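[INFO] parsing input record for Scavenger receptor class B member 1 isoform X4
[DEBUG] input buffer:
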Amino acid sequence: MLTTQKSAFLLLAIGFLAITTAVLVKVFQPYDLIFKWKLIMADKGEIFNLWAQPPVDLYIKIYLFNITNAEAFLAGREQLKVEQVGPYVYKEIMTHENITFNENNTMSTTPSHPLVWQEHMSEGRREDDEVIMLNIAMLAISHLTASHPFFVRMALKTLFVSTQAEPIVRTTAKEFMFGYPSALARLGNTFLPNWISFEKVGLIDRMYDFSTDFETFYTGVPNPALSGLYATYRGETTLPQWEGDHCSNIEYASDGTKFKSFIEPNETVKFFRKSMCRPINLYRVGEQRTFGSLKGYNYVFEDNAFDNGATNEANKCFCRKGDCQPVGLIDVTDCYYGFPISLSFPHFMNGDVGLQQNVTGMNPDPAQHSSAFVIQPESGLPLSLSVKVQINMHFKDLSNFPTVARFSHLTAPMLWFEIMMPSLPDSLDSRFNFYLNILPLVNPLGFWIALIMGVGLLGYAITRATLHMSSYARQAANISEGKYARANLLQNLTGGATNQVYSPCELKLIDNSAGANKQHVIGRSTDEDLAFQERRRKSAYALDMEPALSDAGESSDEGNECDTLTLSRNSTTSSSCIEIEHCNEEDDICIECFDENPLDSELATRTADGAEAKHQLAVSFVSSGFASSPSSIQSSSSHVNFDSSDGKGWVPYAQPHQFGGTSPKHV
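[DEBUG] output buffer:
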């Protein structure tokens, strides 16, 4: 029983522990805790390493606008006509170098974005393809000095003639993108070092010049959602070329490596890249999309991003020095060394109609020229991205320079590029599939498994304890029934009061013969002895055939205070004895013996007249459960012996002084 109680208690304890675990899982959400911990940037940490050197395939595809009617345009016979050539594809090795962790939970770094030529992705294009493009240096100088005093303009005209500079030049695709030799650039570097610090002018080269940049990013402490986002750019949270937070604040923007984590459906995210010269907001559109094993949402540029306040009043801060470009353009002169550079969507998509009408060859197509980011909202991981921007030169009145006068008030397209990541590599997809799809199952599975196990164990333990208690109660009842059966048997023999309760060691045979002075004498002849023995064997057989009676008898032996009661008659000495084994602490045995010779004739007569009743009483004595079990009837553990070899009657108990017998003897 002790083992059963311990087992039930152990099951109850485990059940309560499991339910407590389920509650803790529901309250604290262990997956969220683990995931937030993983998002924090720590030196040599997994997410930090992915951010420092993203193992992704990031490309830039460049399309040049080759001028096809240079002579006719310069002569004034035709408007500018261009054709798109490309793509020229380079792989961008994006890294964050010289990383330093700061005490204010930020990390400082210098970015690096070297490009590697990808001929196999360039669709037959080569870096040495000849193209006819704008002379950026000459047109930029003309634009910047168009309103200067006459003497300045005359000096520049002389310089243009001496260097044989032309507003449209023939060059290779690589030279135009990464710089080509220019006498004007060399002169500018010599005489105006604070303005031009380079001898070659190339749009992509300048766009990917990060030599003077230093950036600070958040580590994610205390807010893991902000890990990997901008804290400052060049030491400031705002860009100096714009006024107002809407246009200048780059704090919490992403450089494309990682966006804000735990993005809400209606929440916008911010993107900043040096080549765009501004932060731009992205918002969610469309339904969930699947890339590899991960799911994300499309994020696109905000509506009217380049409207300069024509539609969105907040965008007026993008009007440089109060001069607003036509809708669809943004003036980024301050980010490109003072060159009159403006940005737009490819082919002037979503721009002013005049932009397209002034240049032949513009074919905007939203399907081909729209930008989109696919972002996994919980992690902020970009699953795919495509950023498409066009670089243009815009001009004011250039009539003071006859060689470039044809470009007055014209916005001429030069190239457009797409920074793209088609998808995550398989290794990264598998890793984040575990983090984002498999690991989240920890919360529901942990909760339900712990809850079901806890409830099951509690139910099982309670049921087991209940059944055990019921079984124990039945056994106790059987024991009590066995004890009272013995007491009732003795009462039947003695004719005692029916409401008397006897302790097993205090059972007494009481005289119940009305009006008789000498009672409890049972006489039986030798023939009656034989008949009684036969009934005794049948009674024992009946008990063997009834396991319930046998078990109850056996069970009643446990803890009994008296296991042996012997009633015998010695035919030689003509005496009778009652032997009782007292099972108290001393385990004494009490034997009372007395002679039966003094029995008078009245007793004998009464015995002879009631022979049949006495036989039935003897059978009842044996079969009513006095003995502990059928086997005990044949053994000495609990037995009743009837020895009647001399053919005389026997007396279970009688007071010696009534018959003149001997005194009780105690052993």
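[INFO] Residues 501-524, 540-611, 613-667 have pLDDT under 50 and may be disordered.
[INFO] shutting down worker
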